[in-house]
Design a protein that fits this description.
Length: 85
């Protein structure tokens, strides 16, 4: 089987799309890091976050914040260590 010019252009176009999508920033790159304060250094689970950031806590989440139960999926520790983040 011989490749035609159209086939070559299709493959190049598909590669361009794949490379372009892989270079897009992930949502995690745009989210703020977990602050490196004493209150945040010992976070081990999302329940620790909600002790302050629940609706009745001292620093509730903004109204437009997604209602996700997995804080560390989007936010990472400022020092890059541990599961917090």
């Amino acid at each position: 089987m011989r490749l035609r010019k159209f086939d070559l252009l299709f493959v190049l176009g598909a590669l361009t799309v794949v490379i372009g999508v892989s270079l897009l920033p992930s949502p995690r790159d745009r989210n703020p890091m977990v602050p490196a304060t004493a209150n945040h250094r010992n976070l081990k689970s999302e329940a620790d976050c909600l002790s302050c950031h629940a609706s009745g806590g001292s620093r509730p989440l903004p109204v437009r914040h997604p209602k996700r139960p997995d804080c560390f999926h989007c936010h990472r520790a400022a020092d890059g260590e541990g599961s917090a983040g």
